[in-house]
């Protein structure tokens, strides 16, 4: 997956998954604009990339506003002459249950994840269409956005919204040969360190110990580096025919998520559906096909 000559912006790439994405793109030849809210963290990421022979600069700005998005695109063009790839990775967590969540906690997550993905993609789309040579937009989703997770109202809403926007943008930008896809990663990061059932696996990775097959396959859990290959693939010319997809990756697991589809359909006979008719039909027709919430895993043997 040769990316020499490509220019990428990776938001939230000072550490964690974003850093792994930026390093992998740079390793394959792309020039990268690293982004973080912490100047020291951003510069450390740039130093790590350049020390390995890559090309990178830092743009320190909190993702969310239109001004921040434009600054990232402008920096790519000013430093490297163009833009080819945008990876929308920046995000924060403000987890708590619905009845405890404040307006500020909700808004902060929506601003960074959802609005930030929108503003950065809009700014990138304008530049990519102006260049007229196609491009790649990669948005980061989450299993929480696909199936929900306890204590993550704001994060679930943002990540589900991102996948919805990806499907729309894939249609709107197809004529310009700009692909738009969502990556749904699972990896050891600061965001997953707080998940109790993942704690032993996070600790194992920190200690340099191998993860058991159950973690890497059934849970689809691994390191940030395990996810980075999918980012490089979607950024490459090899992925020119892939757009509008939600692709899961983690550990040894690679999966294609379906779009929401109707699983059971029943029709009334020209009369519409009264509450009583729905009650009568629910048990025999719909009950067995009710959908689960949250991630479902086979127990570890």
From TrEMBL:
Q: Which residues form the signal peptide?
A: none
Record domain Ketoreductase: where:
6-194
Q: Which UniProt keywords apply?
A: Oxidoreductase
One Pfam match: adh_short
Check the record and name the SUPFAM superfamilies matching this protein.
NAD(P)-binding Rossmann-fold domains
What InterPro entries does this protein's entry cite? KR_dom, NAD(P)-bd_dom_sf, Peroxisomal_Beta-Oxidation, Sc_DH/Rdtase_CS, SDR_fam
Which PANTHER family does the entry mention?
DEHYDROGENASES, SHORT CHAIN (PTHR45024), SCP2 DOMAIN-CONTAINING PROTEIN (PTHR45024:SF2)
Q: Which family does it belong to?
A: Belongs to the short-chain dehydrogenases/reductases (SDR) family.
Q: What is this protein called?
A: SDR family NAD(P)-dependent oxidoreductase
Q: Which organism is it from?
A: Klenkia terrae
